[in-house]
Amino acid sequence: MKCARGGSFSKGELQRFGNIELSPSAGVLNYGQGLFEGLKAYRKKDGNILLFRPQENALRLNIGAERMCMPSPTVAQFVEAVKATVLANKRWVPPPGKGSLYIRPLLMGSGAVLGLAPAPEYTFLIYVSPVGNYFKEGVTPINLVIEHELHRATPGGTGGVKTIGNYAAVLKAQSAAKAKGYSDVLYLDCVHKKYLEEVSSCNIFVVKDNVISTPAIQGTILPGITRKSIIDVARSQGFQVEERLVAVDELLEADEVFCTGTAVVVSPVGSITHKGRRVSYGEGGFGAVSQQLYTVL
Ligand code: PMP
Predict the structure, then answer these.
(1) 114 alpha carbon to ligand 1 midpoint, in Å?
(2) Would residue 208 show up in a list of annotated catalytic residues for this protein?
(3) pLDDT for 23-46, tens place per residue?
(4) CATH of domain 2-131
(5) Is the fold of 2-131 the same as that of 142-296?
(6) Which single residue of 57, 117, 152, 243 has CA 20 to 30 Å from 232?
(7) Helices 54-67 and 75-88 sit at what angle, rounded to 10 degrees?
(8) In this predicted model, what pLDDT tens digit does every residue of 205-236 receive, in sequence order?
(9) What ipTM is given for this predicted complex?
């Protein structure tokens, strides 16, 4: 789908996956004017396909587009385009329990622009790929390391929307962590350097005495759709859930820690390394609370 600045998107068409043509001075290439979404389609036991909450992704893209000075497809256009793309690729949706079809909507300033300014033209496209587990550990616990020097988001910045530049900001810390054998990086706030933010591509939850805490959405972390679902499920199961500032020291006392995201779904955290000190959780699987939430989700 294409749209001129300030205009509305026209109906798109299905195309075989392949390279796309872009001006070297496209806004997205020069000024990072791009947003993406990530959602999944699952094959149910009866053979039908389940799309997990596409409206939520559409709304998040709309909010992100406002922050990035971009027009956005409407919720209805977004959902219709996702459905059409999944339908055209339905043979790639794995059988139940064998993974899912990952769906990547991408909105970008595709028009040419030389001086710093929003692009004059926008492209919205969607591509898909079958995927298995995000972490090679599967649902065995992941091992995180806390990053002290590099931050992914600053107050007033774009950390709260799913813009491509946020992911450029994490590449260095994430690659270094993986080279040392960690699964991923846990970021702290960049002002006090003591409150948990999130992992490179998922949100974090800390459980102590059956109370579930997670960093509040304050502009520097992504409002995860899985995060919201887990909070709803946990509350409906009678758990107390607190969205607040969660201090790094609370990790020392926690009973269990887990991450949520479209890619990771719910992943137990087995250890977190903080300033060279490794704190371990659980006995090699889900803790009792995350197991219960995972089963209900
Ligand atoms: N934080 C970041 C930085 C992410 O990239 C993601 C993945 N979209 C999440 C959290 C989890 O969000 P969701 O549950 O919507 O996938």
Answers:
(1) 32
(2) no
(3) 999 999 999 999 999 999 999 999
(4) 3.30.470.10
(5) no
(6) 152
(7) 130
(8) 999 999 999 999 999 999 999 999 999 999 99
(9) 0.99
Instruction: Name the CA dihedral angle for 47, 51, 52, 53, rounded to a multiple of 10 degrees.
Output: -140
Distance 56 CA to ligand 1 centre (A): 12
Pocket test for ligand 1, best of 218, 222, 226 (most atoms within 8 A of CB): 222
Reported pTM: 0.94
Would the CB of 201 count as within 6 Å of ligand 1?
yes
Query: Which residue is listed with tokens 């107050």?
Result: 155
DSSP string covering 165-221, please? Answer: HHHHHHHHHHHHHHHTT-SEEEEE-TTTS-BEEEETTBEEEEEETTEEEEE--SSSS
Is the beta carbon of 222 within 6 A of some atom in ligand 1?
A: yes
Q: Which of 44, 90, 136, 162 is catalytic?
A: 162
74 contact partners, CB below 8 Å, separation of at least 6: 8, 9, 58
Confidence of residue 17 (pLDDT cuts 50, 70, 90): very high
Q: Domain 142-296, what fold? A: D-amino Acid Aminotransferase; Chain A, domain 2 (3.20.10)
Residue spans per domain, the chain: 2-131, 142-296
